[in-house]
Write a structure and sequence with these properties.
By secondary structure, the protein is mostly beta strands. The chain has a domain at about 435-440 and about 450-720: Neuraminidase (6 Propeller). It is built from four helices and 55 strands.
Length: about 725
Amino acid sequence: MTTTLRASGLAALLLASTALGAPAQSFNRIASFPVALNTPADMDAGAETSSEIIAASDDGMMLAYSNSPLGAVGFIDIADPAAPKPLGSVIVDGEPTSVVIVGGRAFAGINTSESYAAPSGHLAVIDIAARTVEKSCDMGGQPDSVARSKDGAFLAVAIENERDEELNDGALPQLPGGHVMIVPLKNGAPDCAAMIRADVSGLAAVAPEDPEPEFVDINDAGEIAVTMQENNHIVILSREGAALSHFSAGSADLENIDVKKDGALLFTGAMQDVAREPDAIKWLDANRLVIANEGDWKGGSRGFSILSRDGAVLFESGPAFEHELARIGHYPDKRNKKGVEPEGVEIGRYGDQTYIFIGSERGSVVGVYRDTGAAPELVGLLPSGVRPEGLVAIPARGLFVSANEKDLVEDGGARSHVMLYQLQDAPAAYPTLVSQDDAEGRPIGWGALSGLAGDDATPGRLYAVNDSFYGAQPTIFTIDATQTPARITAATRVTRGGQPAEKLDMEGIATDGAGGFWLASEGRSDRDIPHALIHVNGAGEIIEEVGFPPELLAHEKRFGAEGVTKVGDVLWIAMQREWGDDPKGLVKLVAYDTKAGTWGAVRYPLETPTVGWMGLSEITAHGDHVYLIERDNLIGDKAAVKRLYRVALSQMVAAPLGGELPVVSKELARDLIPDLKRWNGYVVDKVEGFTVDAAGEAFVITDNDGVDDSSGETFFWSVGKLESKQAAN
């Protein structure tokens, strides 16, 4: 089945502005800072780190962030925001949950709880210049969010006393309940003896005896807005701790959402009366509040809302925010109960424009909206590393910052990063690929793109496939690469007998010259997925399946076909890594003659990895060469090989399987690491697609792993007309 799509949302906005040639103003990422750089010298550099809540100094030249796994507050020099520098960490006695800066001091909420039933914690006062904890104030419970008043006269601290999610299925009440601490500051120092304990019990309709304050924010008048997430309630306090007003956060009805964790992105479901259960809250002005409706117990309405100070709903995003993330490949199928989980909110006034920043914890994106006084206007989607939590605007310097809590060091993945963005008179650098909506106006979700092919006749028309991450929805996507960002204009489902084809792991695609496609499916015998070539017609229907021959399968290992290309009647398949009969460092390029039905191979020499492994990700024939993507499985600063090589077709003379195989020689065509660095994040590991279109322009795409323990970032770009450069070996 082929679905033709239509433009919508941010895609339409970006395409329209590009088409009109209008000057754009956009937040673009200018730097990424791995917080592991702040790990003290006497600690393991490979230990887990995190950057959760982040704050800026009064002059906007320094950042402080809470690092829960390390038990520290870290500092970053951003005098040159494009080149942030580590300023070290201060180890604290407990788990830091939040941090703010007032003058020369940082104030961090520290959780020291022995158990959920016996919560405890304090406010640590850090002398920034001396990098020492100079004082602490007992908070009478487990602190979560900390906020400062605009005039620096006092702090507000949400004392959550969080629930045990394993106890009675996490049901409330679970005493003791939480409260809010108001901490006066005198000359920038806390007056612990004068603290006010604000009681917020007895207000919510949900477990009123067990309030769990989650997040606090203070407006210019010194009024404190508090979310009680599990209680689905909002309270506004005076600086003296009196409840000025309180109201339920309410609920939302959701239509056209994905509700199943089934390896398919189908926005056809619905949920009714979903409690908002907001996490972050921010004052938009004196009378309006913005909440991020993450959910933590029963709710989570997937979006964000703008409320009046008396609780009236002025704007409700519903699923619109996550629809935008689906269109850019950032929808997390494995989180369908709560969708993209908006968690963080920040407000910043840059010049005469006020922007609302919404952080998606599971989609790993920050949405940028312009305040219009009515429905906010989406103006940007920022790639933000893995799980953004803390957000801070620095309007005086035209900067915005996100802190990303997830550290995947144990799995060899991305470290936790702080990312910096600048408001520029330039188009948005991200996203690089967007989808249009289907005929019913629903987003076409996509991700985990693993193979790329050019159309035989139309310049700029390309085809991509997703891999087994979306095993219930194998799809061939049509891409219009003449647009900026590139557009997915059609989605063709791969079917067998009229149903989505099962047991496929599509890693490569090639046109068959007759309107159909050949697909390379990487097998996994342990998952009953066969190694095979799949022939489909233009409608995606499987018309032929060619399994690998016994001579190959006798030496099977997990990492199989990663690309396919067609040269005359012969299909050439790039095997990712060595199989059992391959000498170390030599991988097969397998040939299948579609007319004769015969198999053969040559061997390709891989670079020697210093750590991890080396393998192939793609093969594409163009002119008198075949081009191959060779990469290591490393990420960030450890990434060393993300390269495009070429082999002369004259060397591609297959020998029969089972005997001696010729070894081809390769030539470096392009180092892709400088390309990957242009988006100012960390270097991603999975460069998986390459093709050349009908006009000779070459394109590359990365695989985002379906946003599963991944930033979700997909990079698609043109490398122009290729010029070969001899490899420096």
